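A favour, since you know our structure tokens better than I do. It will help me judge whether the discrete encoding reads sensibly. The space below this message is yours for that.
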Amino acid sequence: MSEAMTAEQKLAQLNQLKAAFALGGGPKRIEAQHARGKLTARERIELLLDPGSFDELDMLMRPRGEGSSATTGEAVVTGWGKVDGRPVYVFSYDFTLVGGSLSEAVAEKILKVMDLSITTGAPIIGIIDSGGARIQDGPESLRGFGEIFAMNTLASGVVPQLSVVMGPSAGGGAYSPALTDFIFMTEGSGQMYITGPDVIRAVTGEEVTHDELGGAHAHASRSGVAHFAVAGEEATMAEVRRLLSFLPSNNAEEAPIVASGDDPERADEDLLSIVPAEPNRPYDVREVIERLVDDGDFMEVHELFAPNMVVGYGRMGGRSVGFVANQPAQLAGSLDINASRKAARFVRFCDAFNIPLVTLVDTPGFLPGLGQEYGGIITHGAKLLYAYSEATVPKIAVILRKSYGGAYLVMSSKHLRGDMNFAWPTAEVAVAGPDAAANVVYREEIANSENPEARRKELIDEYRAKFANPYIPAGRGFLDDVIDPRDSRKKIIRALEMLQNKADRNPPKKHGNIPL
């Protein structure tokens, strides 16, 4: 009887200990967290994962540094669970414990689930709400961050890595999210910066608030550090779950197939009118994408950054597809530094995780200007050339309207190993636009004519009729077909099915040297 009682007492002790550790920093600090409009580490995990699927790891690991408490756990909650029935690993910083700061033990907990993520092939999701390195732990906290950075790098291209910034992510701690594939930030509470407002004021004299410096909107629209800025923690987690639905669990798998009642053979009459025949009239390319994808379901990535380029995920025939599209409603769809960076990063992620690429082309070229040239447009534009050339996933491109010069080449052209290249009858493919070409080719004839302006317009029209059409490149095999715009969905889905078993390999190498 006494042995049974002892066992019961030990079980009661365990339950009491776990209940205490589950409170993190205690009721008062939980209350303070809620008062800031923020959830606790465990509440966030509950929002993210399927109900009842979370298994926690290292709950009883204790702090080790000088002055540490023996009655609380460490400042991060780690473990695994499921999203839509698929395994994921998660770590969630607990701001109620030492401000969510990273110590030796915190780093060990995070590294354990990251290692499990790589070895079992499931995504890793980090929920960030941390004051950075724990000063009391000295070099041990720095070592912890360094080892996390190294693990982020090793996991890159092996499993999807998502960062969800719901509080501060300051100093060196901001680099771990930067090494991951996608960063979500919650508006109003998520903040990322290397040096805070106080340091900036002391060094440069600039006055700036935390949100202006490193808030969700600033990083989603200006720096491009964040891919998503979402209002509210519940909505943020819903978007994380939505993104995961488009992604495979690892680089050896395909993304899940989602059945749809949307007919793969569906034609769309609206595609005849969405794109204006006039080459300079703007339109929203997202309206084209939404008519191509299953059920109009398109998840845009980096929506607020470099809006002259649209990237994101949809499904066609039930399979995930990555879209890259010029946006004529912004800067006429021209390519600049930020658009090139944005698209190159997206293309490389899709290629790493077996997601086919569909590219919609309507661009007059690279954006001219001193700022672009001095900012390194040559190097940044080359990133996109590199990304498309290196990619071995199925690559399908459709030229909707304009496609001139180097911008024609960079947007998944046949010459960068594109698999299927289509064009609408409205497409104009040329070394330069008719206006610029006529001014160069017929400069002397225009200058010597009796009415230079009238003659210039005649020659522009002549050049457009002669060269700015899809039939010359189609005649050379640079385009595989000129198609009825209404049949675009059917043509792309059939091409994706044809390319489903594509097997392409790049030359053996340690790694390439992308122009960074």
Notes: The radius of gyration is 27 Å. Residues 269-431+469-498 form a domain with the 2-enoyl-CoA Hydratase; Chain A, domain 1 fold (CATH 3.90.226.10). The mean pLDDT is 93. The CA atoms of residues 77 and 92 lie 5 Å apart.
